[in-house]
Amino acid sequence: AFELVEPNPTGNSRIEAGQGIEDTVFTAGQTVDVRGDVSDDLFAAGNAVTVDSTIGGNVISVGSSVVVNGTVGGDLIVAGGTVTLGNDAVVTGDVLLFAGTAELIGTVNGKVQAYAGTLTIDGAVTGNVDVQADEVLLGDAAKIGGALTGLVESPGKLISAGQKAYKGITDTFTGKNAPGKFGKWAGGKAW
To answer: Model confidence over 104-155: pLDDT tens digits?
Structure first.
């Protein structure tokens, strides 16, 4: 069983805070704003998708902009031009993302597999991070419990603030693993 949340006459879809849904939800619209809790899975598509609530299961979302600020009880599978896992976001499972620009600022209690132009990690990931990107930025608050592996398209674009080099990252320009001083954080700190 599932519940379909249809867009209003202006083309927008909204689940209001306090409007809990005890089912799997399918919704789409120009903007999709999920503020009410969903007990099972959420499937959401729109130009702009925002999840500011607790989702008991998985979240599968597609949009030009996708922002998750709430709690995801399962996995997060997302594709978008811009994808943001906000500061208050918690994903209990794994994250699979496809994005032009992605920011992981919240907490992922699983692994992350990312395909992005630019990936910024400035939150906690308890598992491994496997990435294919043009650029990877690790902020001061970045904590990765597992390995960081993958491919970085542009030489010198694995950039970190005080982190050690990750031997599993390969620079696709040179075909070599990232050396000890592969780049600098935007603030200029060498690592």
So the answer is: 999 999 999 999 999 999 999 999 999 999 999 999 999 999 999 888 876 5
Looking at this protein, which amino acid is placed at residue 91?
V
Residues 6+ apart with CB under 8 A from 15: 5, 21, 25, 27, 33, 34, 35, 36, 38, 53
Closest among 55, 143, 141, 134 to 100, alpha carbons compared: 134
Interior/surface letters 140-164, b for 16+ CB within 10 angstroms, e for the rest:
eebebeeebebbbeeebbbbbbebe
Is there a contact between 48 and 63 (Cβ–Cβ < 8 Å)? yes
Q: E-assigned strands of the chain? A: 2-5, 13-15, 24-34, 42-51, 54-55, 59-68, 71-72, 76-85, 90-91, 95-104, 107-108, 112-121, 124-125, 129-138, 143-144, 148-152, 158-160, 169-171, 176-177
pTM for this model (two decimals): 0.85
